[in-house]
Specification:
With 388 residues, the protein is α/β, with parallel strands linked by helices. The chain contains twelve helices and 15 strands. It folds into two domains: 3-37 and 279-387, Aspartate Aminotransferase, domain 1 (Alpha-Beta Complex); 40-277, Type I PLP-dependent aspartate aminotransferase-like (Major domain) (Aspartate Aminotransferase, domain 2). The chain has helices at residues 38-50, 60-74, 89-100, 116-122, 144-152, 174-187, 227-230, 245-257, 267-277, 279-303, 329-340, 366-387; strands at residues 25-26, 83-86, 106-109, 127-130, 134-136, 139-141, 156-162, 190-194, 220-224, 238-241, 308-310, 317-321, 342-343, 345-346, 357-361.
Length: 388
């Protein structure tokens, strides 16, 4: 039996994901039901045994862990001095909005996209400008014509980009990324690339770190974290890579002002262990989740032909078109939870283009994925019967 088959009981652990009623199956928020790698757990246990939990800061080993990880897995040479610790990618987004724009300025996003981007923008009293992805033939692409129109607005100062793209699972090509950077440079727009899902992909696929493309660093910077890939979300640890000194000065000053630049005592310990020693676990996890994805895609195609899976190459999230059953993904998700206990996310939360879709988290033991697919089939059948 694989370590990923273990059914860990997360109830009573303070888990947001598992704060559900008895009999419900949560497959919504993006964290895994897998234990973190043993190397991480051992490193944390050793740190606990030390017993002194005073103030701390990232040291060279923290930088080296990121540099080595991205060199070895993605053939990208990071300058370790370009890395800045931040408590999370969401914190990096919010601080970036306040650092690089003024109240009333515009920030571009490409929905359907991670919904918390909107919070980072709107809570800072900026305007979120949506440029929806194009959806054709079951695949997504950037709408460069509309992007250029949005970038050309003098009030547009920043674009928050998701690479690879949550929730649709798209890996962007070098050509797409370069074109986007060229448009940003032409119109004086900065791009923050959220690459938190980068290490999670269907083997042998690899995402392209935006900053690995020569010449984009004048307008692009990126946020990374081991939290998605190694299931460490509750530890709060991330890094910004900002080669451009002008961008770096503004963003670094802001994250310090916002008090999100200091690690907790476990942040760096967990990151170093995961990035340095957890690579085999990551490879095994990616293969396991890829098999879950294949199982779910095949199950839906065979048993629920009214649902249509968008074939993703990255993340552990399944994006499903439910419009042939229900034009409202939020309504369909609510029905499924009410009738079957399956708790998934309605696509409307992810902005324009998310209407009529649902998102399902596949980072769970196969038995739970099988249970979820069975509930999805039964719920779809009940929904269609009630609508007749």
């Amino acid at each position: 039996m694989s370590e990923f088959d273990e059914l860990v009981d997360r109830r009573g652990s303070g888990s947001i994901k598992w704060a559900v009623e008895d009999g419900e199956l949560p497959m919504w928020v993006a964290d895994m039901d897998f234990k973190a790698p043993e190397c991480v757990r051992s490193a944390l246990a050793k740190r606990v045994e030390h017993g002194v939990f005073g103030y701390c800061e990232p040291d060279q080993s923290w930088r080296d862990a990121y540099v080595s990880f991205y060199h070895d897995l993605f053939n990208w040479n990071i300058n370790g001095e370009d890395l800045i610790f931040v408590l999370g990618v969401v914190a990096a987004c919010s601080s970036s909005v306040r650092a690089l724009t003024e109240v009333g300025d515009k920030v571009v996003v490409f929905p359907p996209v991670y919904n918390i981007f909107y919070n980072s923008i709107l809570n800072s009293h900026r305007e979120a400008v949506e440029v929806p992805l194009l959806y054709h033939g079951g695949a997504y692409s950037l709408d460069f014509e509309s992007i250029e129109r949005a970038f050309s607005d003098e009030k547009t100062k920043l674009c928050i980009f998701c690479n690879p793209h949550n929730p649709v699972g798209k890996i962007y090509s070098i050509e797409e990324l370069k074109h986007l950077a060229d448009l940003a440079r032409k119109h004086g727009v900065y791009i923050l690339s959220d690459e938190i899902h980068g290490p999670v992909a269907v083997p042998p696929k690899r995402y392209v770190p935006f900053l690995s493309i020569p010449g984009v660093e004048d307008v692009v910077y990126a946020a990374f974290s081991p939290t998605k890939a190694f299931n460490l979300a509750g530890i709060h640890t991330a890094a910004l890579c900002i080669p451009n000194k002008q961008i770096r000065a503004k963003v670094e000053r802001r994250i310090n002002t916002d008090e999100v630049a200091e690690p907790n005592v476990f942040s760096c310990v967990a990151s170093i262990a995961a990035l340095s020693q957890g690579r085999q676990w990551l490879e095994n996890m990616n293969h396991y989740v890829a098999e879950n994805r294949k199982y779910a895609e095949d199950f839906i195609a065979k048993n629920i032909p009214s649902l249509h899976v968008v074939h993703g190459e990255a993340t552990y999230l399944l994006w499903v078109d439910c419009r042939d059953i229900c034009p409202d993904g939020k309504e369909f998700a609510a029905f499924l939870r009410r009738k079957t206990g399956l708790f998934i996310s309605g696509g409307e939360a992810y902005g324009k283009g998310g209407e009529g879709f649902v998102r399902i988290n596949l980072a769970a033991p196969r038995s739970r994925v099988e249970d979820g697919m069975s509930r999805l089939r039964n719920g779809a059948k009940m929904y269609l019967e009630e609508k007749e």
